[in-house]
Known about the structure:
The protein is mostly helical. It contains eleven helices and no strands.
Amino acid sequence: MATAQQIRNAYLDYVLSNxxxxxxxxSFVKKxxxxxxxxxxxxxxxxxxxxxxxxxxxxxxxxxxxxxxxxNQYSSREKMLSFFYSYLENLKTNRSFVVYSLxxxxxKIGLPNVLTGVKPIFENFAEEVINEGLESGxxxxxxxxxxxxxxxxxxxxxxxxxxxxSDDSDGFEKSDEAIEKGINVxxxxxxxxxxxxxxxxxxxxxxxxxxxxxxxx
Length: 217
């Protein structure tokens, strides 16, 4: 009896050797000497295998960084930086698969089907990190906009993965720089700024009936 992992390994070996999916489940199972019933016991399609691999890469990264002793001492910004640095390290061990899996999506608009399982788990993680930052006061709690912070981080996820796929620098140094600059800029926008203080002051004056008076009227 084949296992889910054996089927996944055989699928990876096939697509990376042939640079394409098997023509059919029938031809694939015949090649690896299992039955169609055994295949469908674990996966409804080839695409589901790739979705599972992506999900596991993401879940594994989140699990491991949370196990670090320093995790609870990190700021929200540091936690997100830790995720992306660790994620790319994880992807390095599967780079051939990552490039193959996303090759038909690079430059296209919309979420690749193989990442549909990744988005919810990443957004849950991002929301957890953001909420910690809001509670600690590290991040600005802005009406309406705070709920969109996780969307900005998902855009960073998509950008960083695509950037890494095309990165040909030594040790993927440019990707590390893209993480540092992108996440720092994003979290700078999440934090309080003089504009936030101005809005707060305006609301204070309005609530206390001092706005017109302060304007000289």
